[in-house]
Amino acid sequence: MKTIPLGGGDLTAPNVVLGLMRIQQMSDDAVRELVGSARDAGIDFFDHADIYGDELHGCERRFAEAMQLTPAQRDEITLQTKAGIVKDGPYFDFSYEHIIESVEGSLRALETDRIDVLLLHRPDALVEPDEVARAFDELEASGKVLAFGVSNHTPRQIDLLKKSVKQTLVANQLQLSITHSPIIAEGVAANMQGLEQSITLDGGGIIDYCRLHDITIQAWSPFQAGFFTGVFLGSAEYPELNAAIDRLAAKYDVPAIAIATAWITRHPANMQVVLGTTTPERVAGAAQGSDVPLTRAEWYELFRTAGYRVP
Ligand SMILES: NC(=O)c1ccc[n+]([C@@H]2O[C@H](COP(=O)([O-])OP(=O)(O)OC[C@H]3O[C@@H](n4cnc5c(N)ncnc54)[C@H](OP(=O)(O)O)[C@@H]3O)[C@@H](O)[C@H]2O)c1
Question: Is 265 inside any structural domain?
Answer without folding.
Answer: no
